[in-house]
Amino acid sequence: MTAVPAARMRPLRVLLHVFLALVALGWLLPLALAVYASLRPYDETARLGYFSLPEELTLGYYGEAWSQAELPRYYLNTLIIVIPALVVTLLMASFTAFAIARLRIPGRRTLLIVFTAGNLLPPQVLITPLYTLYTMVPLPAWLSDSQSLYDSYLGLILVHVAFQFGFCVFVMANFMRTIPEEINEAALVDGASVWKRYWRLTMPLCRPVLAALATLQFTWMYNDFLWALVLMSSGDKLPVTSALNNLRGQFFTDYNLLAAGSVLVALPTLIVFQLLHKHFVAGLTLGATKG
Amino acid sequence: MAAKTRRYSARDVTVLVAGLGVAIVVNVGLVWGPTLASVGLSATDWNGIGPIEWIGARNYEDLAGTYPPFWSAVRNNVLWLGFLGLVATPFGLFCAVLLDRRLRMSRVYQSALYMPVVLSLAVVGFIAQLVFSSDYGVLNAVSGLHVDWLGDRAVNIWVVMVAAGWRHVGYVMIIYLAGLKAVDPALKEAAAIDGANERQAFFRVVFPTLRPVNVIVLVITVIEALRAFDIVYAINKGRNGLELLSVLVTENIVGEASRIGFGSAIAVILLVISLGFIVTYLSQLFRGEEER
């Protein structure tokens, strides 16, 4: 590119910007439409269609979605599921990755392959037996109203941990291999235990990758729809993404209300994405470019 | 790795066995165990309650012969894969190439493109309704058409694929952008000095170095196409033209029917297709590691 004279570059650059701006606009438009629809009363859009100038704008639907769909409770459900799942996944995966990448244990390559492949399976491949298994595993009543793993928070936490674990191990093992071996050797001379080398020496160096994975995993677990659909039955325990259905009436659905609900459901990931933008992208590409 | 190996103390061994043990138990118990069980159950007519009876390949025969949604689901999955692979992925690559030029506002364009990646597909499904619905949707309002985009079996799968592509393009774009940033700029300069124009330089010099990224994107594309579920489920529960293999599996277990054996047979077909790609991907990934 540097070889091309600036004068010839200019019209091309303009064209490039026009093209990219159009694409970007096209990409944002559907989301903007949802926000716009959520701000207008139903009878107005029923009369004029969604593609019309507003006569009246209102934030009322947000309040309605918030209370009618009982969104606060569903946000809480999501947090009850996602936070423990996230912490356990990262702890378990980091220790496994540490053992695979930094210690000479037999079969570590096989382990890494099995874990990574597990994460790539479509969930539907294992969902039928999992569903059956969940209905058969008994839990005490204080852990689950249904007295089984099925329809319990714990069940969803476990399935997220099991399914996302492979990806995290893969990414973290790749990262840990880049840590200089000398650090380990110095610790060995000092007689540091395995746990100390993992927790005190390796983990502090893994902060960037942990941040990236946490951001990415939060988005993925938050957005889950399938596991909750199949492994839960009582409406009041569902995560927030599934709660949208509560805004659908049996005979009549107010799409403006649903739009407000959708925006509210999308908001946390959009905020995380804006605030932790760098980590999010790093997470997506960490797993992808280390091939 | 250093050749120096210390003997582990008893405590070290306990920590290792406990840590790895839990990981293996969770992974086998909840991922690989159920996967294998799917294979076993697919040869039975179990309904989840009664006795399990072995019926061999009959589920597969029924699937291929007397279960109409199966072939529409296969067709839709193939279309989905074709659309993501031949339209959305190349478009993502194209955007990545354009954005790789240190443009002003590049960050803004990038953010816009991958904003949909963070959205739940359930939300994407709903937004698709706002745009494509027949009576109040924006598309009909703007174009003056009266097409039932989501209800008409002939068109709805295309519309949904566009919605899925909306998300896929951004995902592919980020991965390629990262790959492109890692390409040695000296390569491009050398190509330019040799008189290659930009297109030649890209296809002959840059693109071949992206091979590992290409493999990853291929796998992501295939896996996404096989996993596709949420978006059609959010629109019409994957019926009336939007059948997908993943939806059929779910239908057969959570519906009233509870045909566990039959649903498993569909899952096994998904498994066989995905394993083909997973094995290719992993062997590519771990090939260079023999010597480590």
Automatic annotation (TrEMBL), chain A:
<feature type="transmembrane region" description="Helical">
    <location>
        <begin position="255"/>
        <end position="276"/>
    </location>
</feature>
<keyword id="KW-1003">Cell membrane</keyword>
<dbReference type="InterPro" id="IPR035906">
    <property type="entry name" value="MetI-like_sf"/>
</dbReference>
<dbReference type="InterPro" id="IPR000515">
    <property type="entry name" value="MetI-like"/>
</dbReference>
<dbReference type="Pfam" id="PF00528">
    <property type="entry name" value="BPD_transp_1"/>
</dbReference>
<keyword id="KW-0472">Membrane</keyword>
<protein>
    <submittedName>
        <fullName>L-arabinose transport system permease protein AraQ</fullName>
    </submittedName>
</protein>
<feature type="domain" description="ABC transmembrane type-1">
    <location>
        <begin position="75"/>
        <end position="276"/>
    </location>
</feature>
<feature type="transmembrane region" description="Helical">
    <location>
        <begin position="153"/>
        <end position="173"/>
    </location>
</feature>
<keyword id="KW-1133">Transmembrane helix</keyword>
<keyword id="KW-0813">Transport</keyword>
<keyword id="KW-0812">Transmembrane</keyword>
<feature type="transmembrane region" description="Helical">
    <location>
        <begin position="74"/>
        <end position="99"/>
    </location>
</feature>
<comment type="similarity">
    <text>Belongs to the binding-protein-dependent transport system permease family.</text>
</comment>
<feature type="transmembrane region" description="Helical">
    <location>
        <begin position="205"/>
        <end position="222"/>
    </location>
</feature>
<feature type="transmembrane region" description="Helical">
    <location>
        <begin position="111"/>
        <end position="133"/>
    </location>
</feature>
From TrEMBL, chain B:
<feature type="transmembrane region" description="Helical">
    <location>
        <begin position="157"/>
        <end position="178"/>
    </location>
</feature>
<keyword id="KW-1133">Transmembrane helix</keyword>
<dbReference type="InterPro" id="IPR050809">
    <property type="entry name" value="UgpAE/MalFG_permease"/>
</dbReference>
<keyword id="KW-0813">Transport</keyword>
<feature type="domain" description="ABC transmembrane type-1">
    <location>
        <begin position="74"/>
        <end position="281"/>
    </location>
</feature>
<keyword id="KW-0472">Membrane</keyword>
<feature type="transmembrane region" description="Helical">
    <location>
        <begin position="12"/>
        <end position="32"/>
    </location>
</feature>
<feature type="transmembrane region" description="Helical">
    <location>
        <begin position="78"/>
        <end position="99"/>
    </location>
</feature>
<dbReference type="InterPro" id="IPR035906">
    <property type="entry name" value="MetI-like_sf"/>
</dbReference>
<feature type="transmembrane region" description="Helical">
    <location>
        <begin position="111"/>
        <end position="132"/>
    </location>
</feature>
<protein>
    <submittedName>
        <fullName>L-arabinose transport system permease protein AraP</fullName>
    </submittedName>
</protein>
<keyword id="KW-0812">Transmembrane</keyword>
<comment type="similarity">
    <text>Belongs to the binding-protein-dependent transport system permease family.</text>
</comment>
<dbReference type="Pfam" id="PF00528">
    <property type="entry name" value="BPD_transp_1"/>
</dbReference>
<dbReference type="InterPro" id="IPR000515">
    <property type="entry name" value="MetI-like"/>
</dbReference>
<feature type="transmembrane region" description="Helical">
    <location>
        <begin position="260"/>
        <end position="282"/>
    </location>
</feature>
<keyword id="KW-1003">Cell membrane</keyword>
